[in-house]
Every structure is written in C-alpha cells, then in structure tokens.
Write a structure and sequence with these properties.
heterodimer; A: 514 residues; alpha/beta; 2-enoyl-CoA Hydratase, Chain A, domain 1; 3 domains; eight-stranded mixed β-sheet; seven-stranded mixed β-sheet; 21 helices; 17% strand; elongated; B: 124 residues; mainly beta; OB fold (Dihydrolipoamide Acetyltransferase, E2P); 2 domains; 3% helix
C-alpha cells in the first residue's frame, strides 16, 4: 500500500474520532449553551498551537455491553499548546462521548498529560465536563480518580494547576479541582457538588435545583470553592489567559516581566481614603493607585469580599496584593476571609511572588457562629501563612491596625521585610472607643456627665495611641510616609529584596491549622 | 467600583461606582465599641442567630428515615432503652435513651423522612 493511501486512511480515522460523540450528542451539547471539548481547547489556546495526543485510545471494558461500544478518545481530549506563548498542558473532558464519564483509559489519558506537565514543569489546565465515574468500569474508574488526586497533590506548588468547570463535576470528581490552585466557573454551566439534588431529594425530601445547590454563583459567592466566575465560556477563557500572564511556569521560574507603566491619573492616592476611620472606601482603588497601569486581577472577587486578594504588577513584576476591604463588613477578619487570604499568601510564596499587604481593619467579626465555626483555627491560618512566607513581604498600614488583626496582617513581628504607615495610621490594641471604655471605666462611671467624660477620654486615647508614631518609636514600622510615596517606596523595597535569603530550620513540613 | 453578579439585587456587588456618601445600602456595624459604616454580604445576611440547646429535646444528628418508634408519650425510660430505629446513610441506627426520664411527646411516626436537626422526641 503506497504511503499516500496510508495517509488517507489516517485522515479517515482521525476524522471519525474528531466527531466525538456524533452529531446528535454535539447538538445536545450546543443546546445546553456549551462548546465541545475541542472547541474549548482551541478557544483557550493560541491559534494553531494545540497538539492533541492519545486520539486513538480505546477502552478495554468487557462488561454490561461495553465490548460493543466505541467511545472516541474515551471521552477526553489531551494535548499541549501555548497561551500568549507560554506552554501549557491541557485536558478537556468530552461530554458528548458517554457523558464524559471517567473510565480506566480516560483517567490514564488525564494522568499521562499530568505527568507530562509535571516533568516539563509547565502549567496544567483541566476542563471538567463529566457525568462522573463510568459505572460499567467499576473500581477501575475509582482507581483513575485516585491516580489523578495523587498527581494533583504531587504537582501542587510545583506547577500552576488550573481547573475549569464547564459542566457537571460531581461526587468524588470534584476533589480534583479542589486540590488545584484556581477553579474557574461559568454561570448556568458549572455544577459542582458531592451529593446531587437526586440524592438529597431521596434522603431528605428537599427539592433543590443543581444551580441552587452547586452552581457557579453558589461557589463564587457562598462556598469559595470557585475563584473565578464568568457569564460565558469565552469570558472564562479570557480570565484564564489573563491569569497565565501573572504567574510563572513553575516554582523555579519568575513570572514574566512586563514593561513598567505608571498608574492611571484617575486613581489619586491622596483622595481615596477618608480621614475618619469609621468611613468606608474601596481599597481596590488604593491598589489601582499603586499598581502598574492601575491593573488589578482579583481572585475570589465575590467570596469573603471583606478581604481583597489578587495580582497586579509593580514596576513590571507581578506582586500579590492582600488588602482589608473597609467597604464590606468594615473589613473584618472572619472565618472565610482568613481562609481566602491564607491560601493566596501560600500560593504567592510557593511561586515566588512578592506580597504587598494593605492594612485597614477594625478586628475580628463578633458572633457565636464565628466562634463555633472555629474562627480561632481559621484565623491562625493567616498568621501561619505570613510567618511561613519567605518571599519579599511589604506592608502598608493605611488606617486602622488594631489588636490581633494588626499582628496577623503581615506585621514586623511575623517578619515583614518592610512596614510603612501612612500618617493617619492607628496602631493600637483596640479602637479608641473600646479602649477608653476599659482604661477609664471608673472615671467615666463616676463622672457627672459620663458621655462627656467618655468623649474626652476617647480623645485623649486617640491623641496618645491612635497614631503611627508609638509603633515607629519601637521600630515596628520602618517609616511613616505620605500616601503618594507608597508606590515609589514599594518599587524600591522590591528592588532591595531581589536576593532575599530567609533561613528556616529543616522540617519535613509544618502543621498548618488546616 | 464593584461588579455585580447577574440577577443578584446586589448586597455587596454593584457594577456602578457606589456612591459612598449617601448610599442606603450601607449599614452600621459595631466592632469593639466602634460603629463603622459598611456594606454587608449575602452570606452575612444568611447568618442565623444562636439559640441555647434544649436539653430535653432529642434531635436528629443526620438526615434519615424513621423505621420504628418504640415509645409513646407517658412511657418511663431508662438510659439505654430503645427509642427509635433511624435509618441514615444505609445504616440502621438504634437511637437509645441517653438519660432516664418520661417521654412527653413523639413528633415522628414510622416512615417519616427527617432532615438534620429535627426534634424527634421531647422528654418531660
């Protein structure tokens, strides 16, 4: 047989496999407002950069009629490509083939590309769209999940791992995204849960839709399982591409450097923050007044909005911003915001991204539910993460830094490299009102006009302690600066910290308050 | 400048630049004696008030189905006496009396499906 005919045969084979689950299944996928697996990969990657592998893989299941079934590619597409020139490894489950169900060969394809990503030290992106385990393949399917979870853990902190939920992702399958660094969701398309509406209805008689139980909004706003929320698949792909520009390929590389740009003039750092510490403002405006081109890429935008985390650039290099948000819940630390901040700090540390912390918080959220939800254990994560981080750590105290919150927010005592404070900073054990009530309880009680005495004592306390100079006198902050100097000083601090060494005792690993 | 999640009335997240000066969505929140002006979140709105546990109420600790009810109001029970058989997560749980007492009321009957935290039996 001449080569030409063999090439024709190859083309024919490929063409058939590339149809996935066939016209009907594809039409169904489209009716749900979803792209097919290959369309997704192509939309995500640079033009013509995708190379698919294991196209010809076939399953070996012999039970329950599986021996007669042909499942093209065994329901998953794997390959490599580039995003803005950066190499990435990708898998995308194909819902049109047996509902994207995970059988032995399907899992082997995924683990193969995971091994490849880890060996080549390049980011891994997984697109999840699957009905779950392929029940006909029994324990082989469970083994497949286990092999994926193990690799997720092995690769964690070595290469960036991104999960994209573009369909159902239920039961054990959700643990792979949960083990990865960033989870992307799309409204009306993403569905994640451990036990679905069917089971809940049978056991409890409660009726709930998939969307209300584990849709994109639920995970973006209530659970925090999703880091990103988009209204369409295309918007989601743009978010992923943008993320890739901020992070390094692996934990030995630095993130790509961009041309430095000044912040936009509409973000005037001198005018954003009200003088009265009780008045709110959007701390993201402060970040934008500091970052290159006023660019800020927020993570977990809708969840625990009382703390803001995300990437920006300062003088061309990626930094991770962590900032209390006085606009929401007065910027308190609580269970969720502690989890959110601690995780982000650990991500930045793992991938050598310097941390910039902006402090303005009144303390911790009061409430029985918070205490019973373990705010002690969760709050401790922030202390742990900051103390553990060995990347350059800069802190700017904007206004309030009271009590435990002051310590937790990357204070000198947790080994911040640079601590700057604005002139309006109040660094104290608690706010003036609370403190005056305790210190001067007797004077206030015994006064003829207690309210007047209280106001007087609050003022006295304010003058004495509600300023940055007491902390500066002990060297707990390095210098008090005018707001406009913030960016200049941060640029300098980053330059000075390039060769930072951080000696730590040898350990297998610490025991963070998980 | 906060983006709004589609369809949500916008507790935290408003697309337009929020006018901080006189926005009715702002609340007061007291932290350590100081009153702050701030927005709230959907999750914060969903917080429930804590109530002291009623020691004489026997509640379901897991969702499940009542298979058998072995006591009726007025029965005197000793610790370890069988009260209910309660199926949950494919297990037949024998619910035994944790202390001696007299049954005041039984709120469930055989075949009932109950969610977690439902009061099943009340003691005198």
């Amino acid at each position: 047989m001449p080569l030409k005919r063999k090439i024709l045969e190859l083309k024919k084979r490929k063409e058939e496999i590339l149809q996935g689950g066939g016209e009907q299944a594809i039409a169904k996928q489209q009716a749900m407002g979803k792209l097919t697996a290959r369309e997704r990969v192509i939309a995500l990657l640079d033009e013509d950069s995708f190379n698919e592998y294991d196209l010809f893989v076939e399953h070996e299941a012999r039970d329950f009629g599986m021996e007669t079934k042909i499942l093209h590619g065994d329901g998953v597409v794997i390959g490599t490509g580039t995003i803005y020139g950066a190499p990435v490894a990708v898998f995308a489950q194909d819902f049109t083939v047996a509902g994207g169900s995970l059988g032995l060969m399907h899992a082997r394809k995924i683990t193969k590309i995971m091994d490849y990503a880890l060996r080549m030290r390049i980011p891994l992106i997984g697109i999840n769209d699957s009905g779950g385990a392929r029940i006909q393949e029994g324990v082989n399917s469970l083994a497949g999940y286990g092999e994926i979870f193990f690799r997720n853990t092995l690769a964690s902190g070595v290469i960036p791992q991104i999960s994209v939920i573009l369909g159902p992702c239920a039961g054990g399958a959700v643990y792979s995204p949960a083990l990865t660094d960033f989870v992307f969701t799309v409204d009306n398309i993403s569905k994640m849960f451990i036990t679905g509406p069917e089971v809940i209805k049978t056991v409890l008689g409660e009726e709930i839709s998939m969307e209300e139980l584990g849709g994109a909004r639920v995970h973006a706003e209530i659970t925090g399982n999703a880091h990103f929320y988009a209204e369409s698949e295309m918007e989601c792909f743009e978010q992923i591409k943008k993320l890739i520009t901020y992070i390094p390929w692996n934990n030995t590389k630095k993130a790509r450097r961009f041309e430095p740009k000044d912040p936009k003039p509409e973000y005037n750092i001198e005018e954003i923050v009200p003088g009265d510490p009780k008045q709110p403002y959007d701390v993201r405006d402060v970040i934008k007044a500091i970052s290159d081109d006023s660019d800020f890429f927020e993570i977990h935008e809708y969840w625990a909005a009382n703390i803001v985390v995300g990437f920006g650039r300062i003088n061309g290099d990626t930094v991770g911003f962590v900032a209390n948000q006085p606009l929401v819940l007065a910027g308190v630390l609580d269970v969720d915001s502690s989890d959110k901040a601690a995780r982000f700090i650990r991500y930045c540390n793992a991938f050598s991204i310097p941390l910039v912390t902006l402090v303005d918080l009144p303390g911790y959220l009061p409430g029985v539910d918070q205490e019973h939800a373990g705010v002690i254990r969760h709050g401790a994560k922030v202390l742990y993460a900051y103390s553990e981080a060995s990347v350059p750590k800069m802190t700017v105290i904007i206004r309030k830094a009271y009590g435990g919150g002051y310590i937790a927010m990357n204070s000198r005592h947790l080994r911040a490299d640079f601590v700057f404070a604005w002139p309006g900073a109040e660094i104290a054990v608690m706010g003036p009102e609370g403190a005056a009530n305790i210190i001067f309880r007797k004077e206030i009680m015994e006064a003829e006009d207690p309210d007047k005495m209280r106001r007087l004592k609050v003022k006295e306390y304010k003058q004495k302690f509600a300023n940055p100079y007491v902390a500066a006198a002990r060297g707990y902050i390095d210098t008090v600066i005018e707001p406009y100097e913030t960016r200049k000083l941060l640029i300098h601090a980053l330059e000075v910290s390039v060769n930072k060494v951080s000696d730590r005792p040898w350990k297998k690993h610490g025991i963070p308050p998980f | 400048m906060i983006k709004k999640i589609k369809g949500e009335t916008g507790k935290t997240n408003v697309k337009e630049k929020v006018n901080i000066a006189d926005n009715p969505m702002f609340r007061h929140m007291i932290i350590e004696g100081t009153k702050y002006r701030t927005l709230t979140t959907r999750k914060n709105e969903l917080r429930t008030k804590w109530v002291a546990p009623q020691l004489k109420e026997l509640k379901s600790f897991i969702p499940g189905t009542i298979i058998k009810v072995s006591v009726k109001p007025g029965d005197r029970v000793e610790p370890g006496d069988l009260l209910l058989v309660f199926e949950a997560m494919k297990m037949m749980n024998q619910v035994l009396s944790p202390f001696p007492g007299v049954i005041k009321e039984v709120f469930v009957k055989e075949g009932d499906r109950v969610p977690k935290g439902t009061v099943l039996i009340d003691y005198e």
